[in-house]
Amino acid sequence: MANPAAEHPSLPQPATSLQPPSPARDPSPRIAPLPLPIAVVPASATDDYDQDIYAYLRSMEFAPRRRPAPDYMALHTKRGHPVTPALRAVLVEWLSSLAPILHFESRTLHLAVLCLDRFLSTTRARPAVRSVRVLITITAAALLIACKYEEVYPADVEELVDETSSTHGGCTREELLAAEVAVLKALRHELGSPTACTFLELFMERLGVGDQAAAQLTSRLIELSLLDYGILRFRPSVVAASAILIARMTARPSDDNPWCHEQERATGYTAAELKECAERLNRLHQNSIQYASLSGFEKGRNTATPISSACGPGLLSLLFDFCP
């Protein structure tokens, strides 16, 4: 009988020994988690998942590509682009006026401003921002992206096109959609970055609503913070905790210890760590008493009588004098 192997020399020969196959190497790069000190995870967390969620949000805060550059205005000024802190404040207030009209949540507004700042921090924005009209189109695109991410019923493209019609000639549907694609590409489609609103919701859930007037003032403070370009140098969790501190000091001026151990455990911050941001927020609130900033957003809410006086600078300094 002929040998089959001799007639078919091309057939593979059986292996002499059976060895387990080597595992395939994953070509995707591994991203090491950012190291975080244990102190940033509040000890007050009782839910098994709460500490992990908080640590994850804080790690995203420290990721450079998820945060806008705090000095991106200098790059545009150097190139002669019409991007200034004052114009940015006008655009943010325009976004805030659209929020109640389109029935958007506060977190949608915060995400839209974050997307705008992150885009303007990228190299893609440098050749794109050539005029105020283009900047308005990009701002509308940031709102469109944010509402698609956050809202159950996002705005229609035609609605946003109509809202831009009264600003520097507005934009067309095609221009808005093109701007949406440009912003998404610049942000690498990474939209899950936490904002001050994200952390405020987490902190308030831990602390409880408590004083309704203080809770309303806290929400107003983080909305006012959107107007201030200088706030970008503070992390969102710091802004949220500072807003709680200022609101408590304003609502309870006779309280000798407005930031006690309970607030430190819930937020992970001491009053001394919040000093610089809290002072800036307080100045912003004092100025807003004469200038009704973000009035459109507040008109869309059913709120009680707001607190009309900011925390006095003397009281604020007195608190921080006792900080270690």
Describe this protein's structure:
This protein has 324 residues and is an all-alpha fold. The protein has helices at 4-7, 50-61, 72-78, 85-101, 106-120, 125-128, 132-150, 157-163, 173-186, 196-207, 212-225, 236-251, 261-267, 275-290, 295-299, 313-321. The chain is built from 16 helices and no strands. The model is unreliable at 4-21, 23-41, 291-309 and 312-324 (pLDDT under 50).
Give the beta-strand count.
Answer: 0
Uncertain runs: 4-21, 23-41, 291-309, 312-324
Quote the beta fraction: under 5%
DSSP helical segment count:
16
Basic shape: globular
Q: Whole-number radius of gyration?
A: 26 Å
Instruction: Please give the alpha-carbon distance between the first and last residues.
Output: 96 Å
- Average pLDDT score: 77
Percent of residues in helices: 40-55%
Could you give the order of the helices and strands?
HHHHHHHHHHHHHHHH
The secondary structure category is mainly alpha
Name the assembly state.
Answer: single chain
Q: How many strands, which pairing sense, and closed or not: the largest β-sheet?
A: none
What's the short version?
With 324 residues, the chain is an all-alpha fold. The protein has 16 helices and no strands.
Produce the secondary structure layout.
Blueprint: H1 4-7, H2 50-61, H3 72-78, H4 85-101, H5 106-120, H6 125-128, H7 132-150, H8 157-163, H9 173-186, H10 196-207, H11 212-225, H12 236-251, H13 261-267, H14 275-290, H15 295-299, H16 313-321
Helix pairs in contact: 4-5, 5-7, 7-9, 10-11, 10-12, 11-12, 11-14, 12-14
